[in-house]
Design goal:
The protein is of the alpha+beta class. Helices cover 43% and strands 13% of the residues.
């Protein structure tokens, strides 16, 4: 017997367990069956019927075996009635309002601890429900996973043990703060409740939500079916013109123009995707406070009473339980904040001994094993020598001497007092998921995106940063002093397709650019990472024949294949003392702006009579040198302060190739040694109109003693060609969307270049990949 896939084993397990909490066969028989399926051996005779049913279920994975008529569907159910009569549970859940919990406090150790605790629950605790023990080079999770399963049995059904009904193969994915998993039908409510309870018991205040549903086994292949099969809406009816063109049907199945498209479109929607869509709707309803049958109500989030005569913690939301007098600032901590600080301390030091300050609080709660993102990044570097050498260099001090920054102040001391927040998120994820038809593809897609996301971050950090010496620090109570080497970044979270980083300002745009590039390159298989195989096909079928239509620079890019998925980023460059909740809010606005811009990058090819979409990533950034610079939001600030008549005094957001050219323009400006006073003077003249700004720019440029050719080649010729002649209109460029010169609007990258002139550093920058132009055929 051949080995079964993990999803097929999950289906077989639930079929053999049955629809009740007590298994229909002895547990030892089920465990022997599980082992046999994993090794490809013969299963016990009592459950041999399960294998036949699963094989019939597997056949439906192929589109040619899809029952295209209602009669064929009935015949299939008669041939294998167990697929119709037996049910399986499907549960979806995870943390919600994550940023609200993570950024509740403003200090880096607390933020690091909040993120680490959520990651531990999602990546260790929830998989431990299913007896999955994470593999890590420097951590042994066995004891912790045993404790989680013990907690599961103590809090839920003990006869039979709840944990006995859960095996590793039931997990479809558990990443990005969410979990999707099968389970025996009777355990749906228990598993959903356990997910929510685990988050609440461990974090006390973090929001979580989980929902579950019982489906027929056959529905995991053919989508939702009516109890009376004769009433099921099926392909014959959908193929009728008056039906598939009905507005309600189009809203559900999507719009088609010809009847020959009906079969493929129907099969695409009548699949496992229909089940996950139903769970997503129920998830949103429960998260909004609606009641669920047979489930505890979650309308009211966890709350802790305060008292007017009790001291509150640093967040000013809960009563303090401890006062850490020997810590810098002598903070007051509530129990929630104490847990965050404990996890943050463990993630930073890797020391699993209980510190004295925590013992003095009298709390019995333990953080467990916490593997910080820095540990994971170092593990990646250890397995990839090229990236390790790029980050550490050939000559470096012993790695143990490199310390972790304890505050944003320390992180800023390696970058002129400025830091950058990078918030990145995947594009077209929802559209791609809508075309996933099977749980196997869900599992494959989740793993591929997880790998592409985290390894894109690791590579971007490795090639653009290296341990830096901290200078100008004066914190007698701190363990980090002048001259110490630190890792100059903080990974707040990497979950699914979400990324949140804090990095030095001088390399922030290079890091954002490389994350976007490498995310696509990894999914396309252009970048090889040790131990990582991308299984899915993420390449757009047709080459992008005219890529320059989507970019504002004039340097020709050859046609190339696109990746169906990409990454957009928001980058806020600001002083270290900007309130962190405010910085996070602005970074989120920039991310939304970048994603909004990505959706507009389309044009209609008149020859092919079809719409061409640009799938690549985008980046929006903003340099805020004063906290009082913006009174409302970035979009309003730009509209009111940086738009004058037909002049737009900024060019953000940028596509990834545009950002590459933008950085080259700044580099040319620095190489030309353009006097700062003249830089600012040209910027001030932007508001006075095109001719005044251009006259001053050309006047100052011709007076430069060096770098004129580089500036012309990497700024004027790339961004500023005139549309009516062969000259340039620097520092302006005509907005590419306009059709005639009379209606043209003008924008400029000059203001953004000047803002970043002193902040961006190009020394020691390496790139693992050539540019799009160089890779294109």
């Amino acid at each position: 017997m051949d080995k079964m896939s993990s999803i097929s084993i999950a289906i077989a397990w639930c079929l053999a367990w049955g629809d009740e909490k007590k298994p229909q066969h002895d547990l030892s028989v089920l465990q022997k069956m599980h082992q046999a399926l994993m090794s490809g051996e013969q299963v016990p005779e009592e459950v041999s019927f399960v294998i036949d049913a699963v094989k019939q279920w597997e056949k439906l994975k192929k589109p040619e075996n899809f029952p295209n008529t209602l009669e064929n569907l009935k015949q299939l159910l008669k041939k294998c009635p167990i697929l119709w009569e037996s049910k399986i549970g499907l549960v979806y859940g995870g943390a919600t309002k994550i940023k609200q919990y993570v950024f509740e406090e403003s200090k880096l150790p607390d933020i690091r601890g909040a993120s680490g605790l959520l990651d531990r629950i999602n990546l260790v605790d929830l998989p431990a429900f299913f007896n999955v023990i994470p593999q890590a080079s420097n951590c042994n999770y066995s004891i912790q996973c045993q404790e989680v399963r013990k907690w599961l049995n103590e809090n839920f059904d003990n006869e039979p043990k709840f944990s006995d009904g859960l095996i590793p193969e039931l997990i479809i994915y558990s990443t990005g703060g969410n979990i999707l998993a099968f389970c025996p039908a009777a355990f749906v409510d228990n598993l959903a409740n356990a997910i929510e309870k685990r988050y609440t018991e461990e974090t006390l205040t973090a929001n979580s939500c989980a929902v579950g549903e019982r489906f027929r086994i056959i529905e995991t292949r053919l989508g939702l079916l009516k109890n009376n099969i004769d009433e099921t809406f099926w392909l014959e009816k959908y193929q009728q013109q008056e039906v598939y063109k009905h507005s309600l049907v189009e809203a559900y199945f999507g719009k088609i123009t010809e009847v020959f498209q009906a079969i493929e479109n129907f099969q695409k929607h009548k699949s496992f995707n229909e089940l996950t869509t139903k769970l997503a709707i129920r998830f949103n309803q429960r998260r909004s406070g609606n009641d669920s049958e047979n489930r505890p109500n979650r309308s009211y989030p966890p709350m802790f009473e305060t008292h007017p005569y009790l001291r509150r913690d640093e967040s000013d939301k809960r009563s303090s339980i401890s006062h850490l007098t020997h810590f810098a600032g002598q903070p007051y901590l509530s129990e929630t904040l104490t847990r965050k600080r404990r996890v943050g301390d463990r993630a930073k030091t890797g020391d699993y001994r209980t510190p004295k300050w925590y013992q003095e609080t009298g709390l019995k709660w333990e953080a467990g094993i916490i593997e910080g993102w820095l540990d994971k990044c170092e593990d990646f570097l250890a397995n990839n020598p090229e990236q390790s050498q790029a980050y550490y260099g050939i000559n470096y001090r012993h790695k143990k001497e490199i310390k972790i920054p304890q505050s944003l102040t320390q992180l800023s001391k390696v970058s002129q007092g400025y830091i950058a927040y990078i918030y990145a998120d995947g594009n077209n994820m929802g559209g791609f998921i809508q075309n996933i038809r099977t749980p196997e593809k869900y599992q494959e897609f989740s793993k591929d995106v997880e790998n592409a996301t985290k390894y894109a971050v690791y590579q971007a950090l490795a090639y653009n940063l290296h341990p830096r010496e901290i200078k100008g620090i004066n914190e007698p109570e701190s363990k980090i002093q002048d001259g110490d080497l630190i890792h100059p970044f903080e990974i707040i979270t990497i979950g699914g397709d979400d990324i949140l980083l804090i990095v030095p300002a001088d390399k922030s745009l290079q890091i954002a650019q490389m994350i976007g590039e490498q995310f696509e390159n990894i999914l396309l298989g252009k970048v090889k990472i040790s131990g990582v195989t991308i299984k899915g096909n993420y390449q757009v079928e047709e080459k992008l024949s005219e890529p320059n239509k989507f970019h504002r620079f004039c340097e020709k890019i050859s046609e190339h294949y696109q990746c169906k998925l990409s990454m957009s980023s928001g980058v806020l460059i600001t002083a270290y003392n900007t309130p962190i909740y405010y910085a996070e809010k602005l970074t989120t606005q920039l991310l939304k702006s970048a994603k909004k811009y990505a959706k507009t990058l389309k044009y209609t090819d008149q020859q092919k009579q079809k719409e061409i979409t640009y799938y690549g990533g985008t980046v929006d950034f903003f340099t805020m040198k004063s906290v009082t610079m913006i009174s409302s939001n970035i979009e309003d600030f730009r509209k009111q302060a940086l738009n004058i008549d037909r002049l737009k005094l900024y060019a953000a957001p940028y596509t990834i190739p545009e950002l590459d050219k933008f950085l080259k323009s700044i580099h040319a400006l620095k190489e030309a040694d353009f006097p700062k006073s003249q830089l600012y003077q040209v910027r001030s003249f932007l508001e006075r109109g095109r001719r005044t700004a251009s006259l001053n720019y050309y006047y100052f440029r011709h007076r430069l003693k060096k770098g004129q050719d580089a500036l012309k080649a990497n700024f004027e010729d790339i961004w500023c060609p005139a549309k009516t002649n062969k000259g340039n209109i620097a520092p302006w460029m005509c907005e590419i969307k306009e059709n005639t010169m009379e209606e043209s609007k003008y924008e400029t990258i000059w203001r953004e270049m000047v803002d970043l002139y002193d902040l961006i550093d190009f020394s020691d920058t390496k790139s693992p990949q050539p540019s799009i132009k160089e890779t294109a055929p």
